[in-house]
Amino acid sequence: MPDTLIVQTERISLRKFSDEDAPFIIQLLNSKGWLDFIGNRNVNTTEDALNYLNKSIYSGYNDNGFGLWKVTLNDGGVPIGMCGLLKRADLPASDIGFAFLPEYIGKGFGQEASKAVLQIASEKFKLDEILAITDPANTKSIELLIKSGFGFNKSVPMHEGKETLLLFSNRISHDDEAKINLITSRFYAVFDNRNNKGPHLDLLRELCYEYVSIFKYAFNTTECFSLDSFIPPRKKILTDGTLSDFTEKELTSHLQIENNLAVRTSQYIKSGILNGRNFETKGTKFLNFVRANSQWKLVSILWEDDEQ
Q1: Residues 186, 138: Cα–Cα separation, whole Å
Q2: Contact in structure between 17 and 1 (CB atoms under 8 Å)
């Protein structure tokens, strides 16, 4: 397949991938960001890379007329990532996808590429809505989507329900409610240790104020935690095999926002394998938020599991 130019911007070009890009595919798919947030695709040889190109890249070009395109620097033609459009069977509209080598993240290349792809989606392919999915722990990806005009929609099960990802849309405004919904979805996701991709408990330090108060009510007793006392023991049981295949999600919620304060009442369900035995528990959480300097964060968390 020829190396075909799709679009050129001030600093970068988007081109169709070709078989000659196999070495770069191996490099990108084994970079830390890809492995942490997308997952190991076991692409280690030229043959693996060519198979990936045929199944995951060229198929999009052939079936939809679009796909993931190689992002290269105009100065020297160095490949730095991929960005483009996908059509997944489990999403109701086409979505934007992107991945960059670590040394090129945080330099504006992702936003430049995304802007070009969104323009192509609208002008060439007449797509009214573009979706995006990302790992709840991928802060850089979330920031890029918001800067590119996407608003958070909801958490969605993907890959046959084996993991939960965040769904964004370019037709949703990232208002206060969407911001709090996003924090809540990321909060529930930090404990997920399925698929060897979690947990991400240190993300709580980003979602919460430093002096957040955490309370657990059980058996007529209230335990109180700081982040420093809450994170380590939970990280231990979620990583040492005590608690595996763990997931927690919100079933229903009620959100009240008053000026710079907000409270969310959540009914949740959590399940996993604890000490070798399957379990499932429901309960209630109260999540309290404060907005300071235009940024919402958790200031207190209170939960109680239902009696078994």
Answers
A1: 10
A2: yes
Q: Dump pLDDT digits (tens) for 140-181.
A: 999 999 999 999 999 999 877 778 999 999 999 999 999 999
Q: Are residues 93 and 195 in the same domain?
A: no
**For residue 253, what are its two tokens?**
């919620």
Structural domain harbouring 163:
5-174
pLDDT in tens, 46-104: 999 999 999 999 999 999 999 999 999 999 999 999 999 999 998 999 999 999 999 99
Residues 107 and 206 in one domain: no
Q: What is the CA 15 to chain-centroid distance, rounded?
A: 25
Are 165 and 253 part of one and the same domain?
Answer: no
Helix (H) or strand (E) holding 8: strand 5-8
- Report the alpha-carbon distance of residue 17 to residue 72 in Å, rounded: 11
> Widest CA span of the chain, in angstroms?
69
